[in-house]
Amino acid sequence: MKIFMFRLLFLLVLLPWAEPLYAAENLVSQGVAQYKDESFEEAAVTLQRAYKEHPDNYEAVFYLGISYMQMLEFEKARVYLEKAATMQPDDAKLGVYLGEAFYNLHDYKSAEKALETAIASGVNSARAHYFLGMTRYAQGNYAQAVESFEHAMQLDEAMKVKALYLTGMAYRNMGDQQASARKFSEVKQLAPDSYEATQADAMLRQPLPSQKNFNVSVTLGEQYDSNVVLQPASNVAGLLVSRSRDYVSTAALNAVYNQKVDNHIGFAASYGFSQSLHRKLTFYDVQSHHVDFTPYLSLKTDQAFMRLSADGIGVDYRRYMVGFGVMPGYVHDFGDNQKGTTLVGFQRKLFYPFAKDGDPISLDPSENRDANNFLIGYTYVWNAPQQGRVLSQVLQTNGASLSASYFFDVEKAGGNNWSYFGHHATLSFSYPVWDRVQLTAVADQNRQVYRNINTFYNIKRNDVLTTLSPSLEWKPEMGGILKLNYSYMRSISSISVYDYRRSIITASFEGGF
């Protein structure tokens, strides 16, 4: 009787604890089965219930992490995989999953450390070496990336095509054209119908990217202008509308020097010169010089920079405007070939007015255009993402891109007639229509709202300039770029003399060395 009572008491005490434990174990088993059946969303829901009831269950935490990995929710995957790693720090395979999660979150340093630790602990899987190669490639460590991809190919034939293609890309970025071509040719032979073979074929037909620190390009063009307007620069308000058509020859020279001090610090310096020559309206000939110096700091995938610039603009070979500016900015990499750039800027503009005969003139004080310009803006750039994304399949990935920007600026001029605040928005889309032929379409709107009543017209000036501009670029095998561009401009102004329509057709050739 005593034994019976003891057993009964034992069951009464144990049963309330055993039932939820048994239920949690059931949920874990159910979640694992759903994961193995590739029902990842159902697995995550089931395992979340198990985790809430028993957060110390390693199997629930681990499978919850890799379920989120399969659902591409990499931040959630990281959280649970790191919890699993604290519960069983000796489980080396966790390092591979963690490395993959960090890689997809663009934390390449953490990814590399997790994968190297896993491999050093005895994990010798193709997946571990492949993702280690990817993290090294993303950081620009191409020679080490090649070693990792070679290991992955030796361990798993199924990964060979992808690893071969990335090895070819690594050699290409190192400037080894022969090794790069050899790897791309292997990809085409192994899997001629694969996505990688298509990309490898495109790479074989493209020239090797320049490894030079110094690049110079010269552009020569001819254009027809239906309504010549004196607007020497995009950030200078239009001054004279000729209401006359003309043919124009254009020439431009650009020189850029890039220098990396180390893996994080570098600078770029550039000089640009442009010249326009009108057949009839010689007063509208513009000459411009631009110099800038931009030190930058690389922060993992992002970059901070500070651009210092100087501009000089002449009209009819006489000094028209001088400007000095400073523009700090920050480039953020969102992943999937998406980047955003935040800019703020200041520019000091000094104008030198003169009459058409070239003599300096004394202006009414309200016409003093010397100004301080303050600017803030943002630019977003998207390039066609990697294979497997829906939009990528529609756009065929190779070379398609989209950019959008918005800038707000305030110009405080010495004269009342020229102080304004402005809104400038641009949308640009580029798409490869044929081999070596790129179509680009740009829509641009610049609105300038002047602060004061114009002393000559007794009305506030309000300008909206809209530009639509499609263009075709052809890059022949011999080098250079041939470009055909059409621009339609419509200026709507509260002051009729600044209200106009304008069409420009331009054919140009750009060559570099």
Report on this structure:
This protein has 513 residues and is an alpha+beta fold. The chain has two domains: 16-204, Alpha Horseshoe (Serine Threonine Protein Phosphatase 5, Tetratricopeptide repeat), CATH 1.25.40.10; 215-512, Porin (Beta Barrel). It contains twelve helices and 16 strands. The chain has helices spanning 2-36, 40-53, 58-70, 74-87, 93-104, 108-120, 126-138, 142-155, 160-174, 177-190, 195-204, 390-395, and strands at 214-225, 229-230, 240-241, 246-260, 265-278, 286-299, 302-315, 318-335, 338-351, 371-383, 401-413, 420-434, 437-453, 460-474, 481-493, 500-512. Helix 2 (40-53) packs antiparallel against helix 3 (58-70), helix 5 (93-104) runs parallel beside helix 7 and helix 9 (160-174) packs parallel to helix 11. It starts with a helix and ends with a strand.
Features:
513 residues; Serine Threonine Protein Phosphatase 5, Tetratricopeptide repeat; Porin; 14-stranded antiparallel β-barrel; two-stranded antiparallel sheet; 16 strands; 34% helix; 40% strand; elongated
Overview in brief:
This protein is of the alpha+beta class and 513 residues long. It has helices spanning 2-36, 40-53, 58-70, 74-87, 93-104, 108-120, 126-138, 142-155, 160-174, 177-190, 195-204, 390-395, and strands at 214-225, 229-230, 240-241, 246-260, 265-278, 286-299, 302-315, 318-335, 338-351, 371-383, 401-413, 420-434, 437-453, 460-474, 481-493, 500-512. The protein is elongated.
Helices and strands, with pairings:
Blueprint: H1 2-36, H2 40-53, H3 58-70, H4 74-87, H5 93-104, H6 108-120, H7 126-138, H8 142-155, H9 160-174, H10 177-190, H11 195-204, E1 214-225, E2 229-230, E3 240-241, E4 246-260, E5 265-278, E6 286-299, E7 302-315, E8 318-335, E9 338-351, E10 371-383, H12 390-395, E11 401-413, E12 420-434, E13 437-453, E14 460-474, E15 481-493, E16 500-512
Antiparallel strand pairs: 1-4, 1-16, 2-3, 4-5, 5-6, 6-7, 7-8, 8-9, 9-10, 10-11, 11-12, 12-13, 13-14, 14-15, 15-16
